[in-house]
Amino acid sequence: MAEGQIQSAIAMSVPEAHEWALSQQQIEVFDTWLRAHRKGWRANLATPPAAALSVRVKQSDGTERSIAFFDQPGWSSSVISRGRIASFSVAEVGELRRQLGEPGGK
User: Quick one: pLDDT at residue 1?
Assistant: First the structure.
């Protein structure tokens, strides 16, 4: 998933109906995490549940995309972007979500 560097990002936590702009530090954490997790992405063939956390990013190359995170059993380790899905450890995804400022720190 080679992309331009993240310039800005807006996160939305659905359960709390809360939206916030990521700080520069949170953007750097997210950008670093995404760059470190470029491998393992594949086409998503399943219909995902509603996202618990969604992050809309604008990148240095002008593209925009949304990255979705989930709470439902079987989906809590999954991340989806542009119809592609990757799975990581639940603890790792949870820690990233906390660092992004998700209310309730899933």
Answer: 46
